[in-house]
Amino acid sequence: MSLRNPIHALAIGLGLSVALNLVGVGFLLSFVLFRPPPPPPGPVGEHMLERLARRLPPEDGAKLLAVIARERVAEKTAEQDMTAASQALRDAILADPYDPARAAAAGQAVHKAAMAIGGYYQATILDAAGEMSATGRRALADILPRPGRPGPGPGGPQRDILIMAPPGGAPPPPPSQ
Which residue segment(s) compose the domain that 29 sits in? Predict the structure, then answer.
């Protein structure tokens, strides 16, 4: 078979083209067919504390939902502060010339805002716990991480929905090296 013959060259080119197309389609199908399914979403707009309330006995879950509703303004304020701090950090990182002091201050503001959100969640849970039955408090305690056990426990991956803030006035943790 000679490549000088146009028919032979065309046949070889077509064969190579088909082979490359089959490899490409197989590669793309492997991503579509063998990709793990996404986790099931919760109800649209469901708040992480509302997910926690669903895991409690109904009457105690209703008490947590009532505290969430009372504190909705404080939560929105904390979330807005976090959004503003995150944007300030992004702006500081993108600034030209880069100012390390500005970036560090913005990083501290993000940390402070994150701690405020964690403090909000903790205060909401503790306020609701004061109104719950002993059974509800026991269920709540079983969802919280146990001392000395990092990561999710019997409650599954939703155990890590609680962000526990350090006591008031505690310094932020040192930066990792």
Answer: 1-35
121 and 66 in a common domain: yes
Average pLDDT of 111-131? 88
The answer to whether residue 41 sits within a structural domain is no
pTM given for the model: 0.52
Question: Same structural domain for residues 6 and 88?
Answer: no
SS3 of 57, please?
Answer: coil
The beta-carbon contacts of 167-174 under 8 Å, at least 24 apart in sequence, are 172/108, 172/111, 172/112, 172/115
> CB–CB of 68/124 below 8 Å?
yes
Q: What pLDDT, on a 0 to 100 scale, did the predictor assign at position 163?
A: 42
Residue-by-residue DSSP string for 92-108 = HHH-SS--HHHHHHHHH
Q: Do 25 and 63 have their domain in common?
A: no
Q: Which of 38, 109, 119 is nearest to 74 (CA)?
A: 119
Which helix or strand (DSSP H or E) is residue 7 part of?
A: helix 6-33
Distance separating alpha carbons of residues 74 and 62, to the nearest angstrom: 19
Co-location of 12 and 76 in the same domain: no
Indicate the number of domains in the chain.
Answer: 2
With CA atoms as reference, report the closest residue to 54 among 64, 40, 44, 67.
Answer: 64
Does residue 169 form part of some domain? no
Yes or no: say if 83 and 34 are a contact pair by the CB < 8 Å rule: no
